[in-house]
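can u do me a favor
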């Protein structure tokens, strides 16, 4: 085992598994790309506290997850760290500085080895590839030096989303803004510059994405193979989570949604403890994280193994809307431009296939319940949290979801029988933007009615 691999194993609490497959050059290249876009110094704040440390009454031993912006540029999965990028530095080593907390052996006895500032920085430099390491306590003194520098413009950058005011980035931005005011400097957000770099996936990240798709598909097929053993939402959720985690790095992309019957009309239903009733549909929204990449899949499955005529009619409307969206996705468009076509299609299909045939429907929203697509990458919901980057122009290498849905109260007489139900139906695939259109990375995960019913009939 070479030295760097041994060091990585010693610091397994700090680096996620994909770091083993990367080199410091990958992160260095990303930082260099961002430095080329900057015209003043910029600070990225890592997460400030570890899970369970923010409240005195909680004790949570769970895997730490770093802010994606910080992780993307450093590979460091540890709290209380900062990254300073300074494109105007005259000394090459000063263009990139990693700030880490002071070494605390007593804490490491409890939580594992961490990166910490000491008199000997050789290990940290070998692990991270940074030539310049400084203690986190020295950050503000360094920023004061830069603010007083003759060639510094009257502004500086930090990573934060201007529409958010509650996360650690927003808190740091307020602190940095107050600091800069003393030097008559303005604080600008680096979020757009940064997102432009990470929204387009490189080959390594596409490979991780495909592994996540394979894991998600395998997990879904596994639970279908023993479908009738699940008696309630909790049974099904626990089984699905196990199958996902056993195929990935151990982390879910987000808390799994298992919503049966009317519960599926709640978009982020989390209760997950009600019985699976004969005649209902159950909506599954699930994904896994592998390395720093994610899958985001939704499937809607009949509890008893067969769609009734009303369910089949509505499911096919959503499925055709999803296929319509996939056909239209291509570089040069925005998610906002693509979005409206799908909801118009669904509304018109309800009018012609349900209402015109004597049926009734009452939706729980006005035409559009949620976006058809969001970006996927370092976060399962990439881009600006509030706007969802709907006006970002699609480019090859970007990854988006494709998830039309239908939620409401429906009834109709079909084949001499009256059908009436509250239903929530969502079908979601993940699309990789290509030069001429898109590639459906989730195409092997069953979603056609005939395919689902055939698989369930074998159970």
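np, heres the sequence
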């Amino acid at each position: 085992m070479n030295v760097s691999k041994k060091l990585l194993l010693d610091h397994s609490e700090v680096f996620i598994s994909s770091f083993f497959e990367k080199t410091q050059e990958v992160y260095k290249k990303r930082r260099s790309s961002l430095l080329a876009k900057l015209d003043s110094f910029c600070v990225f704040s890592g997460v400030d506290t570890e899970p369970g440390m923010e409240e005195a009454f909680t004790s949570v031993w769970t895997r730490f997850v770093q802010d994606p912006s910080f992780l993307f540029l450093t590979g460091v999965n540890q709290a209380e760290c900062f990254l300073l990028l300074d494109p105007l530095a005259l000394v090459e080593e000063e263009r990139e500085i990693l700030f880490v907390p002071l070494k605390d052996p007593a804490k490491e006895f409890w939580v594992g080895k961490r990166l910490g500032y000491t008199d000997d920085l050789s290990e940290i430099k070998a692990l991270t590839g940074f030539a310049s390491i400084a203690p986190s306590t020295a950050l503000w003194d360094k920023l004061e030096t830069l603010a007083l520098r003759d060639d510094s413009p009257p502004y500086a950058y930090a990573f934060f989303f201007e529409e958010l005011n509650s996360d650690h980035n927003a808190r740091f931005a307020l602190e940095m803004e107050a600091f800069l005011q003393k030097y008559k400097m303005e604080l600008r957000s680096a979020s757009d510059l940064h997102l432009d770099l990470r929204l387009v996936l490189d080959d390594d990240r596409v490979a991780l994405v495909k592994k996540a798709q394979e894991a998600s598909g395998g997990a879904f097929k596994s639970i279908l193979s023993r479908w009738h053993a699940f008696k309630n939402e909790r049974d099904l959720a626990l089984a699905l989570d196990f199958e996902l985690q056993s195929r990935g790095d151990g982390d879910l992309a987000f808390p799994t949604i298992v919503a049966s019957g009317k519960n599926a009309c709640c978009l982020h239903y989390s209760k997950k403890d009600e019985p699976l009733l004969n005649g209902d549909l159950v909506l599954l929204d699930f994904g896994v994280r592998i390395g720093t990449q994610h899958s985001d899949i939704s499937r809607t499955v009949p509890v008893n193994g067969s769609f009734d005529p009303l369910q089949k009619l509505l499911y096919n409307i959503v499925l055709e809307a999803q296929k319509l969206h996939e056909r239209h996705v291509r570089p040069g468009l925005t998610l906002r431009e693509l979005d409206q076509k799908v909801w118009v299609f669904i509304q018109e299909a309800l009018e012609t296939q349900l209402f015109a045939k004597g049926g009734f429907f009452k939706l729980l929203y006005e035409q559009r319940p949620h976006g058809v697509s969001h970006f996927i990458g370092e976060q399962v919901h990439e881009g600006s949290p509030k706007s969802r980057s709907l006006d970002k122009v699609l480019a090859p290498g970007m990854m988006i979801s494709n998830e039309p849905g239908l939620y409401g109260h429906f009834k109709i007489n079909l084949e001499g029988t009256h059908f009436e139900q509250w239903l929530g139906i969502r079908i979601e695939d993940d699309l990789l933007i290509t030069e001429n259109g898109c590639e459906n990375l989730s195409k092997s995960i069953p979603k056609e009615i005939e395919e689902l019913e055939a698989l369930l009939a074998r159970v």
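The domain at 3-197 is CATH 3.40.350.10 (Creatine Amidinohydrolase; Chain A, domain 1). hope that helps!!
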